[in-house]
Specification:
Layout: H1 2-24, H2 60-78, E1 86-89, E2 96-99, H3 113-131, H4 137-147, H5 181-184, H6 189-217
Antiparallel strand pairs: 1-2
Helix pairs in contact: 1-6, 3-4
Length: 219
């Protein structure tokens, strides 16, 4: 009877530890309304000029006006200012963000005012570069038109959207993600928590097993 009781307690203890592990390693819920629909990246055609223009070349007063329009578009898409808890546009950096309270902001990604202005500016700069092409300017211009199809679903993606107003956006292509050594070694995140909990469970099981052996030996 004593042996059965000890085995039962051991089983219950291990089950409880497994339950704690499941709770600890469960994914944390995130706000799905924090972002807007994104334009998919497209390949640059061969012969496309290297466009270095960025949206900060727009006059500051024009950027202010552009940001006002951007914020208004976000509020309207969310259903009103009170339905857009995340709605900003930094006229200094042109970083912007939109998040609705009860839905994902579903405005076409290529029609946001800031995105339109950026695409239009890059397209114009591309054509100006082609005007200096003394070899084949018409082919160069056609390449610009093929890539910078602004105001359409074939427009190149913009990377001005950020999580916070103070974040610096990317003006020419996506930012490069920097991985930490902890992530590379698998010691961070949920996998690290699971590994830690598994080790803790193993130690408890060993201690309980030793106690069981000692108890049986003294019976």
């Amino acid at each position: 009877m004593l042996l059965n009781s000890i085995l039962t307690l051991l089983a219950l203890h291990v089950a409880g530890l497994h339950a704690q592990t499941a709770v600890t390693s469960a994914p944390v819920a995130t706000d799905n309304n924090a972002t807007v629909l994104q334009q998919q990246p497209i390949d640059k055609p061969a012969g496309l000029p290297n466009v270095e223009w960025d949206i900060l070349r727009i006059d500051p007063s024009a950027r202010e006006n552009l940001c006002q329009r951007q914020i208004a578009y976000c509020a309207n898409n969310c259903g009103g200012p009170n339905q857009a808890p995340k709605n900003f546009c930094n006229a200094t950096t042109m970083a912007w963000g939109c998040g609705c309270a009860h839905k994902v902001a579903d405005f076409a990604p290529f029609l946001w005012p800031v995105v339109q202005a950026e695409c239009s500016g890059k397209a114009q700069d591309c054509q100006m570069i082609c005007n200096k092409d003394i070899v084949n300017p018409s082919t160069c211009a056609a390449t610009c038109n093929a890539y910078y199809q602004c105001d359409t679903d074939k427009a190149p993606p913009s990377y001005l959207q950020t999580e916070n107003p103070t974040d610096l956006p990317s003006y020419n292509g996506p930012k490069q993600e920097i991985s930490t050594s902890s992530n590379e070694n698998g010691s961070g995140g949920a996998s690290g928590l699971q590994s830690s909990e598994a080790t803790r469970i193993s130690k408890h099981v060993c201690l309980m097993a030793v106690g069981l052996v000692v108890t049986i030996a003294t019976m």
